[in-house]
Amino acid sequence: MKNVLPILILLILLGCKNDSKRAIEDNESDSISVENVDSLRISDRDLQLIEQSLNLKRRELIEKKDQKEELENLLISKSFLKEDDGYTLDFKYPYLNEKINPHFENFNEYISKYYLDAEGVEKQILEEKRLCDSLGIPQEHEKRIVEYKIYNLNDRLISVLFYKENHYTGAAHASYTFESLNFDLERSVFMNYEDFFNEGTEEELREILNDLLNEKINSGEMYYDCWTISADDFFDAKNNFVINDNVVEYYFDDCVICPSYTGTYSIKIPLKLLMPVLRQFKKNPLLG
Length: 288
Hints:
The chain folds into two domains: 4-50, no CATH class; 62-287, Fervidobacterium nodosum Rt17-B1 like (Heat Shock Protein 90, 2-Layer Sandwich). 33% of the residues lie in helices and 24% in strands. It contains nine helices and nine strands. The protein has helices spanning 4-13, 34-39, 44-62, 105-115, 118-135, 193-196, 202-218, 231-237, 271-274, and strands spanning 75-83, 87-96, 142-153, 157-167, 175-184, 189-191, 241-244, 247-251, 266-270. Strands 1-2-3-4-5-6 form a six-stranded mixed β-sheet. It starts with a helix and ends in a 14-residue tail after the last helix.
């Protein structure tokens, strides 16, 4: 355990809190030497470059254009703020205007009852703090910040992206996680993967995503150290997409397709590439 701890601290420094691709197998822990740890040390210049890359990646996400202004009559922006001695919860989220359509209550009820789980987040933070206490890690003020982007397709569908900024105790930088919702405005129902794409096409769609990601990786730009999407990771995130101007954009948590310090959080798929997997029925907004 003494030799493994520096490795764990280094991984936290890089921001990949849940990076399974760089996880250390339990049965290998005894073989890790101090010399290996020394070889992984990061120079001040490398740390500065990582910081610059992190800031650029976050800024691109935060400044990404959405359609809040165009949808101001439909949207009611809400917020929830709680500041405690050990943590801060700062959530921003949308409601739909029920004066336009009373059935929008379906959307608002889901947000309030199931998505805005402040009690669950508080419980998670307290459990993490107890774990940190048992490991002797100094306490820090934790933050959970939620913002959202929203898009509209042909006045039939809204796509909402929630992006969560998580400040964990012991981590040098915040990490990001994502959740998206697609809501049919005409029928007032939520839509999932199978409403847009043919059943059983997950592997085919994953290949499309990986082809696009490999193009980015091979470009030699900001996608160094990125990797393709595993079947398990895509299954977990198969509903994590928004639709904007006939482009389907998939979002992945930190360290799923790229480390926190490089690459991007999302992959855009042009509609023409999705034609082989699109579900052919009139209620599919992508065919409208």
